[in-house]
Design a protein that fits this description.
5-stranded antiparallel beta sheet; alpha/beta; globular
Amino acid sequence: MAESAFLTAEISHRIGSFHLEAHFHLSAPWTVLFGPSGAGKSTVLRVLAGLVAPSEGRILMGNRVLLDTRSGLTVAPGHRGIGFLTQQPALFPHMSVRRNIAFGLHQLAREEREQRLKEMLALFRIGPLAERMPSELSGGEYQRAALARSLAPRPELLLLDEPFSGLDAELKASILDDLSAWLRKSHTPLLYVSHDLVEAYQTNAEVIVLENGRIETQGPVHEVLAPKREQLLQQIGAR
């Protein structure tokens, strides 16, 4: 295990003929899990979040064991301290934005819960939308509300599975700027899934490259993705 790692994972999982074998650590504030579609990126996140039980594995976050298949230990998703925003985040359709964000805060005292709500509404600039229903939101507003709900309980780790892929570049950049500000303030680390070379370079993060269910390499973005420079230039030229 890396000396400064706050999470280490050893995951082995078979889905039909596909075999995921991913051993890695997280130690940077922002880590991009990069690779082509079908490489197993979403499965890695779902295993970390506790939504998929791997064939074999062990996950350690800090001094807490979240999963150890050998001993039969597994921590339920709601008790892992991990926030997870999927490719298609789903707000509760029958709840207002305010109630959606407050959903995971029932354990807090009323005053603290209200303070947390105000903080999230202000951070993602959705205060005027607090009483709206999800069906009344635009795509960007919906994503902001979903992020606010994920961050409101102050998770120890945030997982993002390409939740902004359907948004235009300017809106995506705006949301990521707000998110980055919160992560720096709260010292919450992030594992962000992407298959976009340009996006990976822009984050200036640690990168884990996953291909065909295997971790190929891990390190600073400009070192790890240097061999893909020509592909990156082609992508930039096409935009």
